[in-house]
Amino acid sequence: MMRDTDTTAGRRRVKQLRLVVEAEDFDAALSFYRDVLGLPQQAAFEGDGDARVAILEAGSATLELSNPAQVKMIDSVEADGRPSARLRIAFEVEDSASMTTELVEAGAELIATPRETPWRSLNSRLHAPADLEITLFQELETPETRHTRPGFTRP
């Protein structure tokens, strides 16, 4: 069984998580995620037939795997029980309340207003361009405090 500390030849086996999203309205999606949410553009390429891609930096990446009972519990806390999409993207931000307002003003549909969760974050949920469901979360405690609680690992 591989643990989070296991590596191959002293290196992590996966170096980057990249989520690839098809955006029907590419310009609107790019403006929303790059200019409003603030994800810096790492690279952009154009090809034949109006093919376009932009790679946006989103800080560190994690893959959160949840069983159906956990998803249902998160939906009840975060969105008043409204079921989430099978894939939902969560962005940690400095101020989830103000960022939620900015994103709604930029065209996102508000699903749930920011609310404090039992795991001490302030979460909101939105339906965003490129048909993505997103959660904005703001951690309400320091990493040092968080890592003293059961279930969290040390930094």
TrEMBL record:
InterPro entries the UniProt entry points to: Glyas_Bleomycin-R_OHBP_Dase (IPR029068), Glyoxalase_6 (IPR041581), VOC_core (IPR037523)
Pfam families in the cross-refs: Glyoxalase_6
Domain of life per record: Bacteria
Residue ranges of domain VOC in the record: 13-139
PROSITE patterns from the UniProt entry: VOC
Protein's recorded name: VOC family protein
